[in-house]
Amino acid sequence: MQSQDVAQRHAASSTAGTGPVDVEQAEAALVEHYPRLVRLAYLVLPPGLGRSRRVLTAHSLVQRALPRGRGRPPVLPTRAADRESDPGYACLRERVLHRALEAARPRKGLPRLSQLPPALPQVWGLRLFPRSGGADELALDQRLSALSGPARAAYVLRCLEELDDRDVHELLEAAGVADPGGALAAADSVPAEPGLLSRAEFDPCSLQARPTDLMRRRQHTKAVLAAAAALAVCGALVALPGGGWGPDGAAAPPYAGNPAAEAALDPGRLTRLSPAAWRTSARTGFSAWPARGALTGDTALLRRALAVWARPGSAVRVSATPGTQTGGPAGPPQLLYAGEVDTARVVLLYDGLRVVRYAEPRDGTRGAALDLARVDGATQDAASALVLGRSDGNVRYLMAPWVTKAAQRDLRKPDAAATPLPLADGVTAPLASPAAQPGACSSWTVLELTDASGTRLATDLGELVPARLTAGRPGGSTAASGAQVLRGWAPFACSLAVERSAGVRSVNAWSYAEQPLPDGSGSGAWVCTRAETWRGDGTAALAQFRTPGGTAGAVVAKGTDTLACGPRDPQVLAGVLWKSAAGHWYLLAAGSEGTASIRATGGVTASGQGPLLAVKAEQGVRAGLQGTLADGRKISGLH
Questions:
Q1: How confident is the model at residue 142 (pLDDT cuts 50, 70, 90)?
Q2: d(C-alpha 366, C-alpha 414), whole Å
């Protein structure tokens, strides 16, 4: 009866004046409105496909919206004219909507054609996805992800197509939705923001391109050349006693038997803590984390993870933070997580010194990855989160069991409110990763954590453990939270980019001096940011200077493996050549509290009492700085 009603409405619409739509008319509408149709398909498709596959699938659905054949023009169904009075577009919109909803509908048995990866278009060697948006676009994308396919379609037809609820109801019914009224009611849960859907975040025709795994492609080429030999070797291995190569997945062949090593690789001997163990634990580091995830009972997956950790094969992508050993565990490690994350199966393990992440595709072990990070001495603050997975420029975290609330905020916008992140068994929704941010630094998304001890910030620097952000004088710094601290961090947020993939444990920002500027130019701010590493060496101290009205600080000096600006020696001295609004050049220098005098040598010879120095200089000169502390000790300026 439903199909008869739809057919009758189609006939009524046709007799109302729109007339039949032939192939040429529909093709002209497709060419004219192609970007709009692809955006519609992209927004309705299920987010679980991943952004890159959603882009290609959206283009494929629109390109297949025309009927096949070029013979006699068929009579295509037409809905009531839309705001542009184009029956060809209305016809295509209905066909695209039907196919996108079909792709989002679960099906038992063989998948539908629209649920298969698109045959065309195909892109080899690149991942394509829309440009990253701001916090508003990300929040809307997360809300839409929580809706069903029909509810998502109802929201898009309202806000993008600007249709009223009656037209949306009819269009959903024609597209095969069983309960259009329920879809409209569910769409009401998301506030209407029509302007956001027209932005670049949701435009699958304006794309960013990133390479796929280049090392994996090179390895695949070698594998193809050696396919015949590999097939013979695999046949021989399968015939060997002991189960062949299957149980260990992508691991290399086993080494000589050793009872201790074999015990470490036995998934039945993994340490597993109960969900409430952390409440009575004497320590609140990673050793207090419970085992979480839906696959903690998957013995085969855990066996593969342990085997690859002990002896990764040549096809496994292995990464480790600086100073982290990559060998296997000395004894049975602790299981932190095992479950599916986006399109991968992920296992997190901890051996007391390192956190290890093993990931493999859902459909096999080819392309497995192993990431290791040193975390010895991690306390409650440093053991609050771990990176669970990365996809399309976003990152998901697994929270410590004592974290009660998680949110994201833009560190460059201190006055903007934080956006809450829903937690499912300790796993956050995806948020933008600054570690994958290309080009200019327009924002810096950080993770805001709340537990019984308070609120603190952490940032993704491309490693398993996010780096803690603190503020204040070294030795007395506190967690970076509160309006004043956030405003102090904001101008210097983008300087965190230089600390990516350096094994950073925490970064502290210390505003150590305010300096009146010559020629009545106001006051400049001096800040020292220092990154502490898990391994101890490799620390980096950056002296940064910000002029009045400046939105960002400038790095003017840097020290590596230095005690300056750190808890063991909370002193710093730095200088910069600066041009005033009147056109005069000056050497400006500032030391921390306790600096009794400053002397400049080299291209500028001058000295002054106190922690500040400002003298006229020539453009381009180079000068050395030396300070004297109140106790008579000498300190040198950062270079």
A1: confident
A2: 44
